[in-house]
# Entry
Amino acid sequence: MIRLIGIDIDGTLLDSRGHLPDANREAIYEAVAAGIHVALVTGRSYPFARPVADTLPAALTLIVSSGAVERSMDGTVLARRLLDRRVAESVLAATLPYRDHAALIFDRDETNQIVFETMNWEHPGRKAYWLRNHHLIGQAVPLEDALVEDPIEVMFNGAAVAMRELADSLRRDPRGLSRRSPQAKADWAVSLTEYVHRDFSLIDVTAPTATKGHALAWRAGQLGLSRDEVMAVGDNFNDVEMLEYAGTPVLIANAVEGLRRPGWHVTGHQDADGLAQAIRELALGPRLS
# Structure
């Protein structure tokens, strides 16, 4: 029986216009009423994830920044898995050719949550984000000067092919990218989110335990649950680890190409209430039968 559901936000909970469908909201309320704990598990940071949850049950938890931070709906910090600043320095040293694509993300609710060096915010993939959130974005030259505390992550964004190549390099052998990078690849985790239709991708370089899979497993442990009691719903590569952890992994029909695995469930499209369908059929259905 499902007792915990981890739900990705973009591409899963929200439709393609960025709206929360009524059917998805209602299904989450039904799940919570049935005694199921629901966690939103997202690459968004807390300030960007929290407004999405405004009309959802107060019992939810928010696993944000790809698993680096977990908070309750009132903002109380339940867990933090930050990237050691010395490791962040090594990542930056190893990726100097990508400095125009790089930023540091911190667990801050106010200014300088995101710090960049030379990123072009007029880029079509970034401009709307800048217009909405520029009050949270600061600049440091060089970027290393911003590392006055441990960050959540080093973030890169840009064209899909370039970001996939960078992600592969960081996973394969980060030391090969720069002789000035002494750290071993086990010191960080790499998560890739692709929006191929926009030719735009995001890379999150975090602490090894700051992944959606680790965070969902930790939440299950706090609730005394086994993985067989966990369902996860996602649509992108940064959801793979939590989908692999969950006893009931579910892909939204609009999931990126290459994400499907044998035995994984596939539900409806994000624009056809796919999340609500999955909750009612796979989590609530057994309770009603």
Summary: The chain has nine helices and 14 strands. The longest strand covers residues 189-195. The CA atoms of residues 189 and 208 lie 5 Å apart. Confidence is low (pLDDT under 50) at residues 175-185.
